[in-house]
Structure formats: structure tokens, C-alpha cells
Amino acid sequence: MIIIGVENMHNYCFVFALGYLTVCQVTRVYIFDYGQYSADFSGPMMIITQKITSLACEIHDGMFRKDEELTSSQRDLAVRRMPSLLEYLSYNCNFMGILAGPLCSYKDYITFIEGRSYHITQSGENGKEETQYERTEPSPNTAVIQKLLVCGLSLLFHLTICTTLPVEYNIDEHFQATASWPTKIIYLYISLLAARPKYYFAWTLADAINNAAGFGFRGYDKNGAARWDLISNLRIQQIEMSTSFKMFLDNWNIQTALWLKRVCYERTSFSPTIQTFILSAIWHGVYPGYYLTFLTGVLMTLAARAMRNNFRHYFIEPSQLKLFYDVITWIVTQVAISYTVVPFVLLSIKPSFTFYSSWYYCLHILGILVLLLLPVKKTQRKNTHENIQLSQSKKFDEGENSLGWNSFSTTNNVCNQNQEIASRHSSLKQ
Fold it and tell me: Tag placement on the chain: N or C end, fewer CB within 10 Å?
């Protein structure tokens, strides 16, 4: 960051950090424990890679690019001076997020460290932002207890149900030969449902750790209750009740999706969807199953977008028709998600192809037919980030605008007050 300079540091840091992480992943997978999940150095390295690349992009935005070239979120997160060595190491290696994250922006972290997380700011005269008063620091105890309860339930569910419903049974020869198609579909959904709680446990525990330290406060809701979801990584209810591929991705691994959006999708000039999925696969590791999952995810995302754009508006009214549409799309979404992520769980190439061949690649073929037969609305290009893995960022960013992404940090760009920021200030007053 210091030697290269602000003009190109984001590119060099991206290549170096991701390259080093890939070397670590290759070493772990092909030398030590192929085919196994392990809690080792590669997990923290994945988080640090996100932090280094995010910070490099934020410094590049704040010290090299012009404000008019930046999106509103890039302006909010732009870093206007080079961090000191202590600040840099504190951001990357602080105890709260060193093991499992989740990722946070450098600006939010420094605001928390400097004790400005609870400052109420409001636009003053001539568009200048002035600190009006400091609100009493809210207690995170309730949020932490609730999240620890979720952790306990998730862990219990994982240890009891997942062992009796293994994903590997989907490729069992006897099961494939004797089970009917409804049985195969139901077991596929249930086995992947049972595989998710371990992620719920890890991400919710990581969020609770940060909250217990006082980090993660994101303002107050309309009822005046403190919100501790600034760096939350998932919304379980929305995940399990998703009626579209987009809705599922909106609420799954939120911070990683925001990272993908900020370092890849917003900065690439061609095929941003494909490049973003490939980056996600590389970041996760070098198992072939990751690449099969994310390449399948590209197809499913584009097909789901085409279906939604062409048919959803026919089912808005009346309410009974919309309910029927929601039920059908919930079933299709859950099956499609489960079908897509099986290789992610199986990891290796042979069992992954065994599974897809047992299903005759039916959803792959269906997705290709949808893309070939249905028209794609080109006017949707500017909003396509709503529909890929980092699509969850849109809902998250909308929440940021209404309740304050950097709720109480001092911003550098408040002259252009728009409707979102006005809404944020309204919530802060409440």
C-alpha cells in the first residue's frame, strides 16, 4: 500500500492477497487434508484477505478518485488518509474478528475504536454535518443473549439432525436406484437444510462476539430499539422462507457479498456477474466442488432473473394468486438452491458429477432453455447486482440508508443530501 501508491494499490493488493490465500488453500487441501473441513490458518486468512483488499479499494477511492466518480456507498466508505501501522494491524488482527470475521469496513471499525459509534450527527447550515449530542451507549446484552440462543439451537440441530441426514446419501447407489423422484427431491431439500445450521452457528457466534465487545451498533429502529446488525452475516427466517434465488442470496453471507460487490462487481467493465462468481469460488478455496457450485450459480441466477422479469408481474393481483405464486416459487427456489450447492458440500469432482448425472443435469438444461427462449430486459443491466450472489447488498444498503450504514460516524460527503440520507436522519432523531 505504501510502496505502490494510491493509484494502483487496489490492484496490486488484490492480486497479492488473493494469490497468497490461494497458495495457503492449495497447501492445506492437497498436502494436508484433502476432502475434509478443518479449522486452520486458512480461515483467518480468508477474512484478512477481505480486509486488505477492501481497505486498498477504500483508500484508492478516498485518495485518488474524484467524488463524482464514486457511488454513494463508495463515498461513505472512502478512506481519506493512509492508516498508521497500528491502525492497519488493529483492523486486520483485532481479537473480535480474527477467527471467523465477519468483515467490516475500515471506517466503521475506526469509528468504533475512537468511541464515535454513538455520536448523533445531523446536517447543519450550508450542508455541513455537525455533532448535535452523544447518546447514551446502548447495552448489547439482549442482542448477545438472543444470538447465543440461536447459536445453541443451531449447534444442537446440526449435531443431531445433520448426522442422520447426510448430504452424501444423495449419491448412495441404493438410494439412487430405489428412491422415487419425489423422495429424491424431498431428501435433497432436507439434507441441505440440515447442513446449513453449522453456518448459522459460526456466523451468529462471530456476530455476538463483536456485539459483546460493543461493535456492531447500527442505530435505532422506528420503535427506538437499538439495532446490533451492522456486521450481521445472515437473516435466518428470510433464508428459509425465500421465494426467489435473489431473496436467498440477499440474506446469506451478507458481508462477503458486500465485499464481492465493492472489490469486483462495481470495478469490472465486462461480465461482472461471471467474474464475481469466479472470484467467490477462488476465495472459498481450490476444491473443484466450489467451482461447480458457483458456475452452476451463474446459470441459476441468470435463469431466475429471466423468469422473474418475464412472469412475476402477472401474479401480483389478486392476493390468492400471489400466494399461489409464492408457494410455487418457494418450492422451486429451495430445490434449485439445494441442487446448486451439493458440490460445495461434497467438495470433490467425482461425487459432484455423480449427483448431477443422477439428476440428468435437469436444472442445468432447464436453465439453459430459459435463457435461450425468454427475452432478457437489457434495461435491467444497471441493477443486475441485485440478482447475483452479492445481490443481498442491495437490501443491506437500503437498510444502511434508512437507518445509517455509518450511523454515527463523521462522513465527508453530506453536501448532496438525498432522500436516503434524509430518511436516515429522520430515524436517528427517533
Answer: C
Using the structure block, give the residue that is written with the C-alpha cell 451492522. 230
**What are the helix and strand counts (H, E) for the chain?**
19, 2
Q: Is 364 a catalytic residue?
A: no
How many C-beta atoms lie closer than 10 Å to residue 179's C-beta? 17
pLDDT of residue 375: 84
Nearest in space to 111 (alpha carbons), one of 217, 197, 23, 202? 217
DSSP secondary structure letters along 278-313: HHHHHHH-S-HHHHHHHHHHHHHHHHHHHHHHHHGG
Burial 350-368 (b: 16+ CB within 10 A, else e): ebbbbbbebbeeebbeebe
What's the predicted TM-score (pTM) here? Answer: 0.81
**Annotation marks residue 253 as catalytic:** yes
144 within 8 A of 205, measured Cβ to Cβ: no
Residue 119 DSSP SS3:
strand
Q: Is the peptide bond before 318 cis (omega within 30 degrees of 0)?
A: yes
- Does the pLDDT value for residue 294 go beyond 50? yes
For 222-259, letters b (16+ CB in 10 Å) and e give eeeebbbbbbbbbbbebbeebbbbbbbbbbbbbbbbbb
Using only C-alpha atoms, the chain has a radius of gyration, in whole angstroms, of 22
- In the set 92, 233, 253, 401, the catalytic residue is 253
Using CA atoms, how far residue 110 sits from 77, 78, 92, 279, 409, in Å, is: 11, 13, 12, 27, 9
Closest CA to 408 of 257, 220, 254: 220
C-alpha cell at 140: 448489547
Residue 52 reports pLDDT greater than 80: yes
The single-letter code of the amino acid at 87 is E
**Rounded distance, CA 413 to CA 39, Å?**
41
Let me know: does 214 contact 111? Beta carbons within 8 Å.
no
Measure the CA dihedral 389/390/391/396, to 10°: 140
Among 94, 284, 310, 425, the one annotated catalytic: 284
pLDDT reading at 271 higher than 90: no
